[in-house]
């Protein structure tokens, strides 16, 4: 049997040095007795056989995870911690994968010790209460394990500009603004007795508590009673619990009272709610669409996305509905389909700033899937409900040519479903006036997996846009020659 | 009459306590080794717990509880007769620093009643954050409430100083909001969330962290959250979860907080006379967790038009309703299905997947990897264990339902 008596309660480096010596000598774990300063001294025990200090070089290899866990575990109060770590070190030499087997009793124990130490350290970060003492802050704390050394650097990072000290029964730590120093353990009496701010803190503690939700067991599991004696706010807990029922009953009993005069005056200043005014301009329609409840799509969309472009535009493009990015930005055709659209307009030489771009449906329809929203096609009812807004846009913009992009736009503008292929390339007269041109939705081009087919379809789309461009040019010529156009002087909408 | 600082604190902390969030986690790492005061290290710290079981991590305050809005569920609505107070910017800054130096808090959570205008109110709140950050070098955590309709410049500055921003969705449906909070526009609330998320993503640095995760954004690195009041309107749990799913999907929210509508002094007559059971709120949090970490869809958890079972947790309820999928062989089942076993958490599942690469798992191995073997046992097959016919037991649900103690509301 070998006895190793360590000088420190929780010094990983000291244990590692000793363990290296044992490992080098091939000492099996069951032949080592580990002792630390807290162990009872056995007067009749064999004399210590401390292995020779091995130079600070490694004698074996272990997974980094083991070091991490063992560094925490040696701070545990349980006497078996050093023996457990050595046993695992020994076993890991033969089977390095052992560290992954958390179902192994030794590994499971190592995890438990490390996790209890981390919790203890976390509670120290939480429950240390500094008291101001002249120009220094000092606290008394009673950890369950030997965790001051591994926790003090946290307080350095947080309170580097303050001078502070933390006293515990086994050790003390002090920071003077430059250096962290450790000293012997102290007694509670050596720490400052109070701080005027504690009364203010207690006021906060009592006020933030909601007596209607009393849940004492929850409080106790997260803030065990053993910590209460060093928490200034804890003196209030018994009376808060006792008074909770009464306080809740009083809150409920204080039923509605007459509103204060200030509120009544403010109410009187508010105008009587106007009847929903008739929408008499494009700007008014743009404002009103945010309150639209004509179909359920408003419920989950961010906002309504109204059309964009000059009010005197000759051409109006109508797409399907805003997508994810349009919904977030509040602007039509800014997402991936919008980029294809912009590029195609650019290719054929149409200036997007001179056309009006909108959608048949103003709210984004989607299914949530984790962190993504998956686009869904609007149904006939939703398209029908939103014709109200499309019609207003047509009424105020009065475009000479409307370009329906995709089946939803066709459905909205023609009032019935129709296949795009049968209508494409023809100039159609709309029942309520105006000329309609039908093409595909730019997102269709995005979805084609075959590159050749995609290139072909893009050409076709651009050809459709060239017809639009020709129309715009022709109109321009007519206007310049004082031709058929009735001049409408309407200010740009935006 | 001039109120003392302590009286103001009592009023404005009392007014802030209906906001459930107190999280201080998930932000970037900072310290004060090169000046200033404070640090944040990723995981949040709860510095105390009130007897309501809620964590106290931040100094949670309203700048003022004067408010021009009249939201029926709110203790600070303009028609209420609660005592009113207003903090000066410097008062909040000093209080935050005094508490912080004594290690009482991780930082500040500042909200406010709306006075004058959204911009005026937001500007005051931003001033507090700006003073803490720029004049005092405060490196602790700051959570600011966003006032919908405040100008984009103010939202951008708020995002620059704050770790987390939140805009409360308040109620699960637009119709309920119109009834109970007539001055609030649902599209304005969601547009504020969308705007902030867009700015945050723009500010995200390229590259990844050592652990392979994305680097935190420069603006509001701890992201956005929101709060929904439960039980003040008639929306059922499936409607609530559907709302949450759409918020997580749309704005990358970190958390949706559920707050069981709580009796408030001087309550509006528009509210239901009885608060919902606190257990309902608890079940919603569990369901929310299942959506975010366990791969469940909102529809799977609470069937359309339905409420969550108050007696058993939603994961167990799902398993009992789908008992034909169990028992599951822990030595073979894939991760996705293991996550659906009642009693197995994410860390237990990781442990099982790692351990079974090295040896076949027996029941005692599983027991070492999870919190309660008793709960898991009926749903799994291990090397030395099959649950037999216990899954077919018509009393399965009753047996798995915990003692009545768990059913009480306290």
Blueprint (SSEs and pairs):
The complex is a heterodimer of chains A (494) and B (410).
Chain A: E1 2-5, H1 12-24, E2 32-35, H2 64-73, H3 81-94, H4 105-127, E3 131-133, E4 136-140, H5 148-158, E5 164-167, E6 171-175, E7 180-184, H6 197-208, H7 216-222, H8 237-253, H9 261-269, H10 282-288, E8 315-319, H11 324-329, H12 336-348, E9 356-359, E10 366-369, E11 372-375, H13 380-397, E12 401-405, H14 407-414, H15 420-423, E13 428-429, E14 435-439, H16 442-447, H17 451-480
Parallel strand pairs in A: 1-2, 4-5, 8-9, 8-12, 12-14
Antiparallel strand pairs in A: 3-4, 5-6, 6-7, 10-11, 13-14
Chain B: H1 5-14, E1 48-49, E2 55-56, E3 58-62, H2 89-101, E4 107-111, H3 118-136, E5 141-145, H4 152-161, E6 164-166, H5 174-180, H6 186-202, E7 224-230, H7 237-251, E8 255-260, H8 278-293, H9 298-301, H10 314-321, E9 328-329, H11 335-338, H12 346-355, H13 363-369, H14 373-376, E10 380-381, H15 396-400
Parallel strand pairs in B: 3-4, 4-5, 5-6, 6-7, 7-8, 9-10
Antiparallel strand pairs in B: 1-2
Helix content of chain A: 40-55%
The level 1 CATH classification of the largest domain in chain A is Alpha Beta
- Mean pLDDT of chain A, rounded to whole units? 90
Strand ordering within the main sheet of chain B = 3-4-5-6-7-8
**Based on DSSP secondary structure assignment, what is the total number of beta strands of chain B?**
10
The string of secondary-structure elements of chain B, in order, is HEEEHEHEHEHHEHEHHHEHHHHEH
Largest sheet of chain A: 5 strands, mixed
State the CATH topology of the largest domain in chain B: TIM Barrel
Relevant CATH superfamily of the largest domain in chain A: Uracil-DNA glycosylase-like domain
Using only C-alpha atoms, the radius of gyration of chain B works out to 23 Å
Straight-line N-to-C gap of chain B: 40 Å
pLDDT under 50 segments of chain B (min length 5)? 403-410
- What integer is the average pLDDT of chain B? 90
Q: How much of the sequence of chain B is in beta strands?
A: 5-15%
Q: Structural class per helix/strand content of chain B? A: alpha/beta
Number of E-type strands of chain A = 14
From the structure provided, what is the oligomeric state, counting identical versus distinct chains?
A: heterodimer
How many distinct helices of chain B?
15
Helix content of chain B: 25-40%
Structurally, the number of domains of chain B stands at 2
**What is the strand content of chain A?**
5-15%
């Amino acid at each position: 049997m070998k006895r190793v008596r360590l000088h420190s309660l929780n010094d990983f480096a000291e244990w590692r040095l000793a363990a290296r010596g044992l490992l080098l000598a091939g000492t099996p774990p069951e032949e080592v007795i580990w002792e630390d300063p807290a162990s009872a001294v056995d007067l009749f025990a064999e004399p210590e056989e401390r292995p020779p200090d091995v130079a600070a070089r490694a004698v074996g290899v272990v997974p980094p995870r083991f070091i991490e866990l063992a560094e925490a575990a040696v701070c545990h109060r349980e006497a078996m911690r050093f023996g457990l770590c050595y046993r695992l070190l020994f076993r890991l030499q033969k089977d390095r994968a052992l560290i992954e087997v958390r179902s192994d009793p030794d590994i499971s124990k190592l995890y438990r010790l490390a996790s209890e130490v981390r919790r203890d350290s976390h509670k120290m970060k939480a429950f240390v209460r500094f008291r101001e003492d002249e120009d220094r802050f000092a606290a008394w704390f009673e950890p369950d394990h030997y965790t001051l050394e591994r926790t003090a650097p946290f307080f350095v990072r947080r309170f580097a500009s303050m001078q502070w000290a933390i006293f515990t029964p086994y050790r003390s730590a002090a920071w003077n603004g430059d250096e962290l120093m450790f000293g012997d353990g102290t007694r509670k009496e050596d720490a400052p007795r109070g701080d005027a701010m504690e009364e203010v803190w207690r006021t906060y503690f009592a006020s933030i508590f909601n007596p209607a939700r009393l849940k004492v067991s929850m409080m106790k599991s997260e803030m065990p009673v053993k910590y209460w004696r060093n928490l200034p706010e804890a003196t209030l807990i018994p009376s808060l619990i006792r008074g909770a029922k009464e306080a809740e009953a009083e809150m409920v009993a204080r039923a509605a009272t007459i509103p204060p005069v200030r509120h009544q005056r403010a109410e009187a200043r508010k105008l009587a709610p106007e009847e929903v005014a008739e929408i008499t301009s494009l700007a008014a329609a743009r404002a009103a669409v945010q309150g639209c409840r004509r179909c359920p799509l408003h419920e989950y969309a961010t906002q309504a996305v109204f059309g964009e472009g000059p009010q005197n535009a000759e051409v109006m493009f109508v797409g399907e509905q805003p997508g994810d990015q349009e919904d977030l930005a509040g602007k039509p055709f800014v997402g991936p389909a919008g980029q294809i659209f912009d590029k195609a307009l650019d290719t054929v030489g149409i200036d997007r700033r001179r056309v009006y771009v909108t959608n048949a449906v103003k709210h984004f329809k989607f299914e949530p899937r984790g962190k993504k929203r998956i686009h869904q096609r609007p149904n006939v009812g939703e398209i029908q409900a939103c014709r109200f807004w499309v019609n207003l846009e047509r009424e105020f913009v009065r475009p000479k040519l409307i370009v329906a992009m995709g089946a939803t736009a066709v459905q909205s503008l023609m009032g019935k479903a129709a296949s795009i292929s049968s209508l494409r390339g023809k100039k159609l007269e709309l029942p309520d006036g105006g000329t309609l041109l039908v093409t595909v939705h730019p997102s269709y081009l995005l979805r084609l997996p075959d590159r050749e087919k995609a290139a072909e379809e893009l050409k076709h789309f651009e050809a459709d846009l060239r017809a639009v461009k020709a129309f715009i040019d022709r109109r321009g010529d007519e206007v310049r020659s004082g031709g058929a156009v009735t001049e409408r002087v309407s200010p740009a909408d935006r | 009459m001039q109120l003392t600082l302590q009286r103001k604190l009592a009023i404005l902390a009392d007014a802030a306590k209906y906001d459930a969030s107190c999280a201080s986690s998930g932000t970037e790492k900072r310290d004060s080794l090169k000046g200033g005061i404070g640090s944040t290290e990723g995981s949040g710290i709860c510095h105390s717990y009130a007897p309501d079981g809620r964590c106290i991590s931040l100094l949670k305050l309203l700048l003022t509880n004067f408010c021009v809005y009249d939201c029926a569920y709110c203790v600070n609505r303009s028609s209420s007769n609660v005592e009113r107070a207003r903090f000066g910017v410097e008062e909040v800054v000093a209080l935050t620093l005094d508490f912080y130096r004594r290690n009482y808090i991780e930082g500040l959570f500042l909200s406010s009643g709306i006075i004058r205008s959204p911009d005026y109110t937001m500007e005051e709140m931003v001033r507090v954050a700006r003073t803490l950050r720029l004049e005092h070098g405060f490196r602790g955590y700051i959570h600011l409430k966003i006032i919908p309709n405040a100008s984009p410049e103010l939202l951008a500055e708020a995002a620059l100083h704050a770790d987390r921003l939140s805009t409360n969705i308040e109620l699960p449906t637009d119709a309920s909001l119109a009834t109970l909070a007539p001055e609030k526009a649902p599209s304005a609330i969601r547009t504020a969330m969308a705007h902030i998320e867009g700015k945050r993503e723009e500010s995200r640095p390229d590259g990844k962290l050592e652990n392979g995760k994305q680097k935190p954004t420069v603006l509001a690195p701890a992201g956005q959250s929101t709060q929904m009041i439960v039980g003040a309107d008639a929306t059922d749990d499936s409607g609530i979860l559907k709302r949450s799913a759409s918020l997580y999907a749309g704005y990358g929210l970190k958390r949706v907080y559920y707050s069981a509508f709580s009796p408030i002094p001087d309550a509006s007559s528009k509210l239901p006379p009885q608060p919902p059971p606190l257990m309902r709120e608890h079940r919603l949090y569990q369901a929310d967790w299942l959506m975010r970490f366990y791969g469940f869809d909102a529809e799977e958890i609470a069937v359309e038009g339905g409420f969550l079972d108050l007696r058993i947790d939603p994961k167990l309820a799902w398993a009992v309703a789908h008992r034909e999928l169990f028992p599951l062989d822990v030595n073979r089942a894939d991760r996705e299905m293991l996550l659906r076993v009642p009693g197995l958490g994410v860390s237990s599942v990781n442990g099982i997947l790692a351990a079974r690469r090295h040896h076949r798992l027996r029941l005692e191995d599983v027991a070492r990897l999870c919190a309660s073997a008793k709960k898991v046992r009926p749903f799994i097959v291990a090397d030395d264990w099959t649950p037999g016919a216990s899954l077919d037991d018509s009393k399965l649900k009753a047996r798995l339902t915990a003692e009545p103690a768990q059913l009480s509301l306290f």
